[in-house]
Amino acid sequence: MSASNLFMKPGFVRAPLQNGVGRYVCQLQRVVLKFCKTHGASRGLRDFIEQDLVEFAKGNPGVVVYLKPRRHRGPVVVAEYLNGERIWMNMHNKTHSEITKWIETLRTQQGDVSATRLRKYQYTAYPSIQGPWSPFTFREPELNTAELPDVKFGENNRLPTSATEQLRLLFERQRLGDGQEKTAE
User: Fold this and answer.
1) Does 109 fall in a domain?
2) Is residue 96 located within the same domain as residue 150?
3) Omega within 30 of 0 (cis) for the link into 149
4) Residue from 107, 67, 75 nearest 94 by CA
5) What are the phi and psi torsion angles at 80 (to 5°)?
6) Per 3-state DSSP, what percentage of the chain is helix, strand, and coil (rounded to 5)?
7) d(CA 63, CA 138)
8) Fewest beta carbons less than 10 Å away: which of 95, 106, 122, 153?
9) Model confidence over 34-78: pLDDT tens digits?
């Protein structure tokens, strides 16, 4: 472990790890846009509110957007996530396009996990270079071009006979063999 982790807060990942496997759940829960109606530093945020806020709200129905006008204060965007994290960003003198990019970044991330030292029970200094295992790791490459359903790739054809099945077949052959000898006598 490196010494850079000493000053990070320890914690666990509280967001769903396989988000997007069954369906995608946007981790951004709430966005609060704090701005001044007259202050010059809030110009970019006011432009974003006038031009893009309605489209952002229509495109992300699961995200609640609050507008909080404040007198003589700098513009701020506060993002709250499902895992309880809050990210506070100062938007002082940012342009409309920069604010659009930052809000899109806040929408697509899952919270401030990068500043957390992840605690886990397993640790290795040499992770696998092969990548994670998946159910398709050891599949035959012929399946990629085959027209399914195919008799060649049936379940019984691919699996070898188990030891239990071999013993059962051996027992059946012996029983039938003993039955034929008794009937011949």
Assistant:
1) yes
2) no
3) yes
4) 75
5) -120, 135
6) 40, 15, 45
7) 41
8) 122
9) 999 999 999 999 999 999 999 999 999 999 999 999 999 999 999
